[in-house]
Amino acid sequence: MAVIRYSGCVCCMVGAALVAMLSVLPLSGCRREPEPAGGRAGGTSAGLGPADQKYTTRALVVALPDAGSRQPLMLHHEEIPEFVGKSGEIIGMKEMVMPFEQIAPDISLDGVLPGDKIGLDFEVRWKQRPRTLVTRLEKLDPATVLHIAPKSGGE
Ligand SMILES: [Cu+2]
Q1: Ordered structural domains, the chain, with CATH
Q2: How far is it, in rounded angstroms, from Cα 55 to Cα 82?
Q3: Whole-Å CA distances, 109 to 113, 134, 137
Q4: How far apart are CA 80 and CA 109, in angstroms?
Q5: What is the Å distance from ligand 1's center to 76 Cα?
Q6: Biggest alpha carbon–alpha carbon distance for the chain
Q7: What's the gap in Å between 79 CA and the centre of ligand 1?
Q8: Is the pLDDT of residue 127 over 90?
Q9: 75 beta partners
């Protein structure tokens, strides 16, 4: 009986199980998904389980993601009164500057700059990475008045 080792990747686990049963199938084609870069090119939402929550809010762009420095997208978002905490209770979230770990691969940040005002949807997964995934992003009229503290450009 062969010793079965796997590196944590589900397809390897399945492959190893098959090898154990059949003793013929090679583990070819089995490789890890690349780590999410946390940036605009970062990762994929494929393979993620269903989101725990999804929110729509508006925000000021504070910093764009940069894979090199591992800087995530930083947004100063408006209050999200319906925000659900890890325990499942509605705890609300005040307006704040917050990192958004990942952006869905179909979303382009081309033409988006710090200081821009945006509308966005994002998903929260408390037990998976990324914990926050931006799934929609839309530039707003610069004249839009965001309800955020003035320190980063709100009014
Ligand atoms: Cu927040």
Answers
A1: 1-32 (no CATH), 53-152 (2.40.50.320)
A2: 8
A3: 8, 11, 8
A4: 23
A5: 8
A6: 69
A7: 8
A8: yes
A9: 61, 98
Q: Does the structure show a pLDDT above 70 at 130?
A: yes
Q: Is the pLDDT of residue 103 over 80?
A: yes
Write down the pLDDT at residue 119: 98
Which pLDDT belongs to residue 47? Answer: 81
**What is the whole-number distance in angstroms between the Cα of residue 98 and the centre of ligand 1?**
5
Those residues whose C-beta lies under 8 Å from the C-beta of residue 73, and which sit 6 or more positions away, are 39, 61, 63, 64, 65, 99, 100, 103, 109, 134
- Measure 11 CA to ligand 1 centroid, in angstroms: 35
Strand pairing class (102-103; 96-100): unpaired
Distance 42 CA to ligand 1 centre (A): 21
Its pTM stands at 0.69
Contact residues for 35 (Cβ-Cβ < 8 A; gap 6+) = 43
106 vs 41, higher pLDDT:
106
Q: How many whole angstroms from 77 Cα to the centroid of ligand 1?
A: 7
Is the CB of residue 138 less than 8 Å from the CB of residue 120?
A: yes
Q: What confidence tens digit (pLDDT) does each residue in 13-72 have?
A: 333 333 344 344 444 444 554 444 444 434 445 689 999 999 999 999 999 999 899 999
